[in-house]
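Homework help board

Subject: predicted structure for assignment chain

Our instructor gave us this sequence and asked us to write out the predicted structure in token form, then describe one feature. I got the tokens but I'm not sure how to describe them. Can anyone check?
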Amino acid sequence: MQKKYYELTKNELLMNPKIPVRILIDNEAVFSLMAEEILREIETNNLQGKRTVLICPVGPVGQYPYLVEMVNSRNISLKNTWFINMDEYLNDNLDWIDMNDRLSFRGFMDKEVYSKINSELIMPENQRVFPDPKDPAALPKLIEKIGGVDVVFGGIGITGHVAFNEPSDDMSCEEFLQLKTRTLEISRETRAVNSIDSLNGAVDEMPHYCITVGMYEISRARKIRLYCFRNWHRSVVRKACHGEPTASFPVALLQGHNDISLSITENVATNGF
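My token output:
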């Protein structure tokens, strides 16, 4: 009987994965690499006089202190860079949660990133973009207008979601990949996992709704860079790299992308079973 992908050893994980994998020593190495890869894209485009368009997460967030320090110390201009954040929590009226809420991704980016970058380097406010629940269609239109996304940076959620694209048991792969920016209800599993770091496990206090960029926007980016570093990522990574593409585990739908990579820690590479 074929060994289940959850049981794959480190060496077996690296044998013909459907998403290329590289292993780094620890969390800090992953976050540092992520920051370096963001800046490498920006510096390359700056030298060529080209715009940089990135889809970025708030989770993981460990890359941002490195990013801020590197931008300021290397004097890297972000004036021609667009940061499109993946998603944001919504209240029960399907409006953005308050920017001062401890869970707000908009608040995090403003306080921990944009306000800490030297003013002569930071991009204009209109290039700091979040999907808008009042006009979800505006984001795909903006991406098309500015020439598409250079790189998507992100993690993988417990249900295999990228951004907040929660799984579907009813949609085909093709249908799921056509989903654009939209509001949706967050699964109980995702709310539970997110509550651990954000609210010390108070899952009942987690928002039920969000707005997220779609798999349509993600899958059409020129590059996709994913990063995993938590203990439970052991199983998620194995399913992403050795499972079959299915809308019930969304990240697996990206297996056929032309330029995708997954960076993980030694801890994640260790057999989870």
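Reply (TA_rk): Your tokens look well-formed. For the description, you could write something like this. The radius of gyration is 18 Å. That's the kind of observation they're looking for.
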